[in-house]
Amino acid sequence: MATDTMAVELPDLSTHTPRPIAEETPEEKYERLLRRARSEDLSEISGIGCLYQSGVDRLGRPVVVFIGKWFPIGDIDLEKALLYLIKLLDPIVRGDYVIAYFHTLASSSNHPPFSWLREVYSVLPYKYKKNLKAFYIVHPTFWTKMMTWWFTTFMAPAIKAKVHSLPGVEFLYSVMARDQLEVPAFVTEYDMTINGLHYFQPDTSST
Q1: Cα gap 67→13, rounded to integer Å
Q2: Contacts of 14 (CB under 8 A, 6+ apart)
Q3: Whole-model pTM?
Q4: What residues does the CRAL-TRIO domain cover (predicted)?
């Protein structure tokens, strides 16, 4: 007795195109980095002491301090440096804040590559830019002025008006009390050398 056979058509695997993997959104990337920042050991970066919060300004806004001379580009993992920055700043940037960057006695070995700065700026969400109310650069040099001009012209024009170059530490005292600003001794010693003994004048603006 003859039996009928049913032909089964198999798919042509040679023309099968795999479904593309969904690209990670900027928000998803930041959340992933934030989870890593909270879970990984970042003592290698925190121990350097180049980035920390130092009190508040006269409007009660947290002051984030960055010491350029203590940022050894060739000796640290820049990915971990980004993670530490996120770990420190994420709770701070939920409200208004200011940054004081001290370029005092920094050299080319402390200059972060522009590619890394661009990556940092692209990774950080809008709240970082929106809530940043001032970015002070103390003891600027030709390098900081050129980098500031390029960065705020082509990468971050929205923060251009927030960037202020200051020739000395004492210029910060109009916006924050002396006892709220903690900086290494070499910063104040250098400042007294080039600007005079301003530190021995009483701070009357807070009274």
Answers
A1: 59
A2: none
A3: 0.83
A4: 38-195
